[in-house]
Amino acid sequence: MSDSQLATLWVYLSASPLLGLTVTLVAYSAAYRLYEVAGMRPLLHPVVVAVALLIAFLQLSDIGYVDYFEGAQFVHFLLGPATVALAVPLYQQIPKLRQLWLPILAATLVGVCVGALSAVGVARLLGATLHTQLTLAPKSVTAPVAMGISEQIGGLPSLTAVLVVVTGILGAVIGGRLFALLGIRDDSVKGIAMGITAHGIGTARAFQLSTEMGAFSGLAMALSALASALLLPGLLSWLG
User: Fold this and answer.
1) Average predicted confidence (pLDDT) for the chain
2) Is residue 240 over pLDDT 70?
3) Per-domain residue ranges for the chain?
């Protein structure tokens, strides 16, 4: 493609909502290719790399987020169907799910409470402000829900979103090694732990390791998001 053709294409895209969609797809494709070349290392998760590429592009091109999102909202819309699609591999695990429904519910409740309270407690011991503590509380919940909870309890939603991504990356990086160190071999148990602590990024990593692990991770992610939305505001208020 010649320089004049590239210039014409840029002029067209920059004046069209298609720019956000095109840039998002190109960034993710490049990030996923890098992820494959690097041996699928969790630190180079395509979501993280794609976000970094998009931030750099918006900064260099001086395009506002609102203008970018006019096109990117089409990808955002697909988040709902993609989440619902997690029910398909879970359906294949129904016989085991019937045996484990009580441990799963108990693990979800304990995981949500421990995850939030430990983050708040450590932040408080290190001298963080109340605002920062509340921002940290929903860090283990999937991003859309975490941001809503953060806003409701008085945190900073934008910072919560960053902490959610960092938490997911850490979970994906150390999860497998930690399971091996603890001698945990059951994929359903691994999946539940990964979904509660590392939400979407952890679930993506779980699917790479095992379909069963990914299915239970998706279930745990959804249940922990629901439990966090219901429990965290009241729990933090009760604790003062």
Assistant:
1) 80
2) no
3) 3-77, 84-238
